[in-house]
Amino acid sequence: PSGPRAVPATPYAFTHDPATTALVVIDMQRDFLEPGGFGEMLGNDVSQLQRVVAPLSATLAACRAAGMLVIHTREGHRPDLSDCPPAKLVRGGGDTRIGDPGPRGRILVRGEEGHDIVDELAPVGDEIVLDKPGKGAFYATDLEAILRNAGIRSLVVTGVTTEVCVHTTVREANDRGFECLVLEDCCGSYFPEFHEVGLKMIAAQGGIFGWVAPSGAFLDGLV
Ligand code: C5J
C-alpha cells in the first residue's frame, strides 16, 4: 500500500507516510558495540548493545524494501582531533582516550575500522552516511538540509545509545518540527534502566519529544 498509515504507539498512534519518512540509524559503530572501542573506554559493558543488531537489521531490510530514505550516522572526529572538544578528549578517566590506538584502529577517529558501522548493518548503495562530532545528529552536520531537500516530515529513530545520541537527536529533530517514532527494541543502552526511562521520557506528557513503539508495530504497517 501507499499513503499514510497509523502505527500503534505510545502515547497514541504515530501517523506517517513512508514516502516522507526516513529511517535514522544512529552510531551502530564497532567503537560502541565491540570491545576496545570508545564505549568500553568509558567503562561500559559493550555486550549490552548487541541485542539491538537483529531487530534493527530486520527493520533496515524492510525500510529498504519499502523504498524509504535511510540515513546512518557515525560519531567521531578528524584524525588531527581538531574538532574534538578538550573536555571530551579527557573524559572517561582511563588510560585510553579518543585518538589512541585500539584493536580496531584509533578510537573514534574517522576512517578507522572501529569508527565504521558493524558489518550486519553496513550501508548499501547510495544510503547516506553522516559523520557527526557530537551526540546530536543535527549538530555541525548537514542533516537538516538533507531531510528538508528530500521532503521528509517524519523520522523513525534507532541505534545507540538510547539516552545519549538517540535522545539528543530526537530532541533536536522535535524542535525542528520532525515527528519522531523511536523503535524501542532497535535502540539500546549500556544501562538497561536508562534505556527504559529514556523511552518513557520521549513519550511522556502526551509525547513531549515523540512516540515509542516496538519495531513489529512499525513493520506490520509498512508492508
Ligand atoms: C555515546 C552515543 N553514548 N552514540 N554515544 O557516547 O550514544
TrEMBL record:
<dbReference type="Pfam" id="PF00857">
    <property type="entry name" value="Isochorismatase"/>
</dbReference>
<dbReference type="GO" id="GO:0016787">
    <property type="term" value="F:hydrolase activity"/>
</dbReference>
<dbReference type="InterPro" id="IPR000868">
    <property type="entry name" value="Isochorismatase-like_dom"/>
</dbReference>
<dbReference type="InterPro" id="IPR050272">
    <property type="entry name" value="Isochorismatase-like_hydrls"/>
</dbReference>
<feature type="domain" description="Isochorismatase-like">
    <location>
        <begin position="21"/>
        <end position="208"/>
    </location>
</feature>
<keyword id="KW-0378">Hydrolase</keyword>
<dbReference type="InterPro" id="IPR036380">
    <property type="entry name" value="Isochorismatase-like_sf"/>
</dbReference>
<protein>
    <submittedName>
        <fullName>Isochorismatase</fullName>
    </submittedName>
</protein>
